[in-house]
Amino acid sequence: MDQMVKQKTYVYQAVARAVRDHGDTMFGLMGDANLFMVDHFARGCDGRFVPATHEANSVLMALAYAHASGKVGIATVTHGPALTNCVTALTEGVRGHIPMVLLAGDTPVTNPHHLQSIDQADVVKVTGAGFEQMRSPETASRDVARAFYRARVERRPIVLNMPADFMWQEHGQDAVVYEVFETPGYVPEGGAVDRAIGMIASARRPLILAGGGAIGARDRLIRLAD
Fold first, then answer.
1. Which of 20, 52, 83, 180 has the most CB atoms around its CB within 10 Å?
2. How far is 226 from 79, CA to CA, in rounded Å?
C-alpha cells in the first residue's frame, strides 16, 4: 500500500500564507531576504504585490492604503540599508497612528559578520514603531499573526524582523489569526453630547471635519451635514 508523502512547507511559504490571511495587497522592494516570500505570496497565495522604486515608498504606499481602506497596510523590504531607508516613512506612520506591518528581512543569524548586518531593532526603535522578532522557523506563522495583532491594537507600524537563513527551513505549525476587539473605547454621552448639539444648532455655517476614524461613514456624515 502506497504511503502518502506529506509535502514540506518552508518558512517563506508559511510567512506568505500567514500574511495572505491578513490581507491581499503587499507593497515592497525585493531582496535576497524576502524574494521567495514575495514570489509565493503573489503566485502561490493569489496575493497582489505592488513593487516600489524605493524602500520608503513601500512603507508610504502601505500607509496610504491602510488610511484609505481601513485595513492593516502591508509592506516588505530586505535587510540593512533597505530598512534604514524606511526610517522617515515609519516615523510618519507612527505619528499618524496608522496600523501597518513591515516585513523586513534580516541577515542570517549564523553570519554575524555579514556586510549588511546592523542592529535592526535599534533602527526601528528611533522611529517609534514596534519591533517584532521572528523567534524561530517553527513560530513563523504565529510571529506574523502577532505583528498584525499589535498593529491593529497599538495603531502604529510594526516591523517583523525575519532572518534570511530561516526562509528555507521547514515550518510545521498552522497559521493563526488573533482576533482584536475594535469597538471604540469612548462614546460621548450626557453633557458632552448636549454641548456638541448646542454648538451645531447655534452655528451659522457649521463645518464637519471627519478624521481617519470616520472611514466608512461617508453617507452618515452627509446626512448629518444636511
1. 83
2. 52
- Whether 211 shows a pLDDT value over 90: the answer reads no
**CA distances in angstroms from 7 to 1, 25, 45, 172, 176, listed in the order given:** 19, 27, 16, 11, 20
R_g over Cα of the chain: 21
Kindly report the pTM of this predicted structure.
0.78
- Residue 196: its pLDDT value, please? 79
Name the residue among 104, 142, 140 with its Cα closest to residue 123.
104
Q: Please list, residue by residue across 107-128, b when 16 or more beta carbons sit within 10 angstroms of its beta carbon and e when fewer do.
A: bbeeeeeeebeeebeebbeebe
